[in-house]
Amino acid sequence: MTQTATTPVTMPAQVRKPVGKWSGTAWLRRAPLLPALLFTILVTQIPFVLTVFYSFQSWNLVRPGSRHFVGLRNYVDVFADSQFRGAMLTTVLLTVVCVLVAMLLGLGLALLLDRQFVGRGVVRTLLITPFLILPAAGALLWKTTMFDPTFGLLNFVFGGDTDWLSEFPLASVMAQIVWQWTPFMMLLILAGLQSQSKEVLEAAAVDGAGRWRIFASITLPQLTRYLQLAILLGAIYIVNSFDAIFLMTQGGPGTASTNLPYYIYQRAFEGFDIGQSSAMGVIVVVLTLIVATFALRLMFRTFGVSEVR
Where are the transmembrane segments (predicted)? Predict the structure, then answer.
């Protein structure tokens, strides 16, 4: 019996099915996501394009017929506005302080919750609760129960009749935001702690390393990527803080606690200046994108992930 060799049959090039991201199968997989994509474009990108369009016009709603094209003059006026520069400085200060303090408190709480003790589940639930409260409700809670000069808990504990929101407006807003975002930081850092290799920690303890040495040499490097993620996400959300300032201090006294979102709100809905408020919004978006881009590149290098092009 002789054995005949068979050759593989190849499909002609003209009848091969297209393979790749533009193939029909790929589009079928992406089809369920199209409604969400269209909705996102509708509620985010179209308003942003209109904001860019309005930023090149001088338009005040209380002056009928004032709408006309002015080019880049709104942007020049915005950067020449001392209140805008002050609001930008307040925004940077508010974001940096709140993110760092919330991260340090979250790190301490995560280290405590990483241990076994009776009632750990109940304690964890109680510590997460502030993050589950609506920001507006949390701001009103702190305004009425903590900072009230007559019935507030702070004056009850420390004595006196200090009007915290008038004398320390920015610090009061920071306290409420830190209280709101510390559980978020705690959850991220706790996830990093629980992903550690227990064998490595036990080996370090057997070799005679103390708790501080284990934390500094093993735990902290392991948490680097989680800390960076917490800083990035916390900064993105806290830089847009509006509820606490609007409900607790209304940006005052004066402009002591006015950040960029609240100042843009004042110019748009109290001053009715559509042109300059739109220019401010575009500037804030561009600055946020620049900072987020550098932060994301740093995170990609830390996680060892190549950027999607």
Answer: 33-56, 87-113, 125-142, 173-193, 226-248, 279-300
Return the exposure string of 154-180: e unless at least 16 CB atoms fall within 10 Å of the residue's CB, then b. bbeeeeeeeebbeebbbebbbbbbbbb
Look up residue 272 and give its two tokens: 């009715």
Compute the distance between CA of residue 33 and CA of residue 302 in angstroms, rounded to an integer: 30
Interacting residues of 144 by C-beta distance below 8 A, sequence separation 6+: 151, 152
**Which two structure tokens, joined as six digits, stand for 6?**
């068979």
Instruction: Give the model's confidence band at 303: pLDDT under 50 very low, under 70 low, under 90 confident, else very high.
Output: low
pLDDT of residue 183: 94
∠ CA 80-81-86, rounded to 5°: 120
- Asked if 165 contacts 157 with a C-beta cutoff of 8 angstroms, the reply is no
| Helix H or strand E segment including 175 | helix 169-194
Q: Which residue has the higher pLDDT, 241 or 17?
A: 241
pTM equals: 0.82
Nearest to 163 by CA among 248, 246, 97: 248
Q: What is the pLDDT of residue 85?
A: 92
Tokens of 296: 């994301």
Instruction: Please give the C-alpha separations between residue 85 and each of 79, 89, 189, 214, 279, in angstroms, as whole numbers.
Output: 7, 6, 34, 44, 14
DSSP type of residue 146: I
User: What domains can you pick out in the chain, each with its CATH number?
Assistant: 74-303 (1.10.3720.10)
Q: Name the amino acid, one letter, at 124.
A: R
Which structure tokens are listed for 276?
A: 């300059």
SS3 57: strand
Q: In this predicted model, what pLDDT tens digit does every residue of 109-150 receive, in sequence order? A: 999 998 888 888 899 889 999 998 999 999 999 999 999 998
Strand ranges (E), the chain: 57-58, 68-69
